[in-house]
Each structure stands twice: as structure tokens, then as C-alpha cells.
Specification:
- This protein is an all-alpha fold.
- It is 84% helix and 0% strand.
- It has four helices and no strands.
- Helix 1 (3-26) runs antiparallel to helix 2, helix 1 packs antiparallel against helix 4 and helix 3 (63-77) runs antiparallel to helix 4 (81-105).
- The chain is elongated, with a radius of gyration of 14 Å.
């Protein structure tokens, strides 16, 4: 797979993740169990996205996403789902939208 194909697939994954994060953060009807399950899949996909971003650009700054990841995991461990949804809405969504802009402009 060349970098162009990886970039296109990464953008598709990024769009998918962004849509899922928006749904998770805005749906008050998610049960805790459903939220946990969906977050696990989301985190796995974010990990794949981060790995592809790292392949495409070794100098891409990942400190912020790593901080958000760590905070999400702490919120999950503490079963603090209100903070988790806020984190998704106010930290992760803007970061993913920024990444999308960066990838679209390259």
C-alpha cells in the first residue's frame, strides 16, 4: 500500500470515527453498557488511526491525542460517563476535525 492509498483509507477511518464520536457524545440515551462497548471499538479504531498517521508523518504531534486517550481511560475506570461524554464532545471532536483539515490540505 502506498502513502496515497493509506492517506485515503485514513481519511475514511477518520470520518467514520468522527461520526461515531459525535453520536456517542450527543446521545443521552446510551446505557453505560452500550457506551462502554462502543468506546472500546472506538478506542481500537483510534489506535489504528494513530498508527497510520504515524506512518504518514513521523513528525505529526500525537501528544494531545495521547492525553485525551489517557483521560478517557481514567474516566472509564472511574465510571465517570458524564466527563467522558464531555471529553468526547469538547476535546476529541475538535482534535479529529483539525486532523481532518490537515489531511485534506496535504
Amino acid at each position: 500500500m502506498n502513502n496515497t492509498e493509506l492517506r485515503e483509507l485514513s481519511l475514511q477511518l477518520l470520518d467514520n470515527i468522527l461520526n461515531r464520536v459525535i453520536q456517542l457524545s450527543s446521545n443521552p440515551k446510551n446505557s453505560e453498557k452500550e457506551l462502554k462497548e462502543r468506546l472500546i471499538f472506538l478506542i481500537e479504531d483510534l489506535d489504528i488511526l494513530i498508527k497510520s498517521v504515524n506512518i504518514l508523518d513521523k513528525d505529526f504531534e500525537l501528544r494531545e491525542i495521547n492525553y485525551i486517550f489517557q483521560s478517557m481511560l481514567e474516566s472509564m475506570e472511574n465510571e465517570d460517563y458524564y466527563s467522558l461524554k464531555d471529553m468526547l464532545k469538547y476535546e476529541l471532536i475538535p482534535l479529529l476535525e483539525h486532523w481532518k483539515g490537515v489531511f485534506n490540505n496535504e
